Amino acid sequence: xxxxxxxxxxxxxxxxxxxxxxxxxxxxxxxxxxxxxxxxxxxxxxxxxxxxxxxxxxxxxxxxxxxxxxxxxxxxxxxxxxxxxxxxxxxxxxxxxxxxxxxxxxxxxxxxxxxxxxxxxxxxxxxxxxxxxxxxxxxxxxxxxxxxxxxxxxxxxxxxxxxxxxxxxxxxxxxxxxxxxxxxxxxxxxxxxxxxxxxxxxxxxxxxxxxxxxxxxxxxxxxxxxxxxxxxxxxxxxxxxxxxxxxxx
Amino acid sequence: xxxxxxxxxxxxxxxxxxxxxxxxxxxxxxxxxxxxxxxxxxxxxxxxxxxxxxxxxxxxxxxxxxxxxxxxxxxxxxxxxxxxxxxxxxxxxxxxxxxxxxxxxxxxxxxxxxxxxxxxxxxxxxxxxxxxxxxxxxxxxxxxxxxxxxxxxxxxxxxxxxxxxxxxxxxxxxxxxxxxxxxxxxxxxxxxxxxxxxxxxxxxxxxxxxxxxxxxxxxxxxxxxxxxxxxxxxxxxxxxxxxxxxxxxxxxxxxxxxxxxxxxxxxxxxxxxxxxxxxxxxxxxxxxxxxxxxxxxxxxxxxxxxxxxxxxxxxxxxxxxxxxxxxxxxx
Amino acid sequence: xxxxxxxxxxxxxxxxxxxxxxxxxxxxxxxxxxxxxxxxxxxxxxxxxxxxxxxxxxxxxxxxxxxxxxxxxxxxxxxxxxxxxxxxxxxxxxxxxxxxxxxxxxxxxxxxxxxxxxxxxxxxxxxxxxxxxxxxxxxxxxxxxxxxxxxxxxxxxxxxxxxxxxxxxxxxxxxxxxxxxxxxxxxxxxxxxxxxxxxxxxxxxxxxxxxxxxxxxxxxxxxxxxxxxxxxxxxxxxxxxxxxxxxxxxxxxxxxxxxxxxxxxxxxxxxxxxxxxxxxxxxxxxxxxxxxxxxxxxxxxxxx
Lengths: 249, 331, 304
Hints:
heterotrimer, A: 24% strand, C: ABC transporter involved in vitamin B12 uptake, BtuC
């Protein structure tokens, strides 16, 4: 099991009559970028939500770092090193960018039952925040309120938040959503630079990005995984072509 | 025009100076009752500030905060009762001998209120939204009925205590001395809260208020932090309760009544949520306003009602926001 | 045994009144997302109007017939003038505004009717007792309350499940956004639901008036008990309101009646009475806490 950082076993989830996940068995190798693609409604975000712990599967198991985390709460999984980004940027709009990141950094430093010292003058927080600001090119925006940022900057902050806790694995839910081509390239380059250090499960619609940076691609259709393997193999798979081209064609 | 930061400092310092000099001013104006009135105002200000921690910073709309105010008051009153005419409660080594020593009963009031808040918070924080509001209201009412049922301590009629507590030999019966004790307590509590909201813990609470989903995704066990905040707020209210028991030398279940919780809520909103000093302004405004309005008409509540509605419908910046000129958020 | 039966009936009577209050409140919350603290004021207004008309005309029926539409109208006015602006606001704003309404109505009642409580007689026809079981007399009026409450519950059930209005109500309660999208959440529907809630509260007030004192502030204690019912039953659920109300009514009444006696089995008399009374007064809240531990969103929560 140790080559797989994250593995699901026969994950099933239905919402009434709608089957969102059916006997889903995903395997994500340590250090890889694993892309999850499929038509709209295939159930990709539901998978992310189950992996993150926001939705409980009807049956099946999830293993991370060789632990069975199926019943674990969202925050417990995050503390173990499983971070996520949201499809719609989920930030602290009233706080500055720096304060947002400060909160992102705090859990890694242990508990936050510290009541006296100002958080914004605490080097244990300000140092990592400074490094994050610089590596994600957000320095200029450090004191700006997150709520007033442009869309592309919000997506970058969203990513920075997930990285702040120095996770072992990142669940990325359409990080390029709504960003222009240049920003997408920047994000793609950033993700690629993290390869090897951080394992990533990437849900994305932008096929150019997916086939450029992904090590493994899994294709989901109607809650089932119909193909998984190296990008070129998946691209050539007839069933995949039918799912994307035939049915949509 | 002075900028926002300047105005903020003006409010803090000018307001602080005015309150510090109040007994002198009252003396000059020949209105000594002002000292006792403002003692009451400062005490309610402490309770309102503690509620602001929950409401303004944690976005926890508690409609039962007066319960902890009342608990603190009753702890002091019950201890005083047993220290005097009531005689020890219980028997043997479990006997509660009671005390009139503030250094014992005030911290105890704070601790018991915090514990009550911890228990109620533990149950209430499992819910959110409207459920949370109603549940905090319900539990506070439960405590109201509990104290109401305690015949030994006066029940519905309440409990009088004869004379104020003994604090380090100070003569608390002297209204001016007592006023300054309240002033020091308020100032100290404000200072503590100021540090608290800017600390790591404070950041976590503010994060939970703005986006709890994100907080959990970052790895924070939000329930525990919110619960601690709830208990700390309860402790603050308990301190205020200890002081009010001394101020009026009388406690009754009415201190826990939910309309009292509503008043605290109004003080926080009126003064400016999430500013810490706003609730102080709100307490001054509401209590002074009630007194003044009551002179004009005995049906002041008829006017206070629609006034509240209008304030809510129009703006929620509060007095502090109006003076300082921003959305009243804490910096 | 006979005492038990009597207390069970008393519990049912309280439960039925709580149901009348809870039904309106839970509907308003479920459909309009509004937490309405002023609901108790409708109860109070119903009692005051009925007491006044009854005293003036000597007819309970007339009092009832005037109080219900008068309060429903007042409820509708309040909805149009104030509450309508609160639907999109957050709960804190709603709490504050409706708290302001409570203060307003309490003061208004004092101005119009004075500070002294009003008293209302039980109607002649129902002032006697009925022997349900030979040898067990029970006040006819209280039985009438139970019967009325159950009848209203039945009518409400028919309204909600069999009529078009009921369908709209159900749709709105289960998915407000969708209902808005397909256009059934008209201001008219909201006004109707609110007026219906006010009417039910007024009915409870009218029935309570002969038993309790009719005075300013009488709405508050029953309001909080109503909140307990709704929390237990689940917001937005009439079924939950019914079950919750009966549960709360029974627990409260039976607790107060029998807890001190039960405690006498294990404690000395004086202590048993005191502790019993204290525990009984907290009874329904302890019940609420227990339900919450088991089901944080009540017995019949609306789908998320």
